[in-house]
Amino acid sequence: MLALRPALLERTTLRPMNASLSLNDALKLAGIADTGGQAKLLIQSGQVKVNGVLETRRKHRLSAGDTIEVGGEEFVLELDAEDEVE
Fold first, then answer.
1. In the chain, fewer beta carbons within 10 Å around the N or the C end?
2. What are the start-end ranges of the E strands in the chain?
3. pTM, entire model
């Protein structure tokens, strides 16, 4: 199970179809953006960092352990052992 976990807030559980997730989808599933259009604007306006680096590609693929920062809040993408690919 993938989860986008705020560093100091409650855990938000995500259930994507595979072990990676686009940045655009992660923002929508975590409730940071209500729509794909809102996620696109956040990303392309330079308000999103992935692993400390500004990311402006909305289709950027995230993996377990990636850190996403939006508006000063940090989230960590988690992958439970049951989802690991052998």
1. C
2. 2-6, 12-14, 21-22, 48-50, 53-54, 61-62, 67-70, 73-79
3. 0.71
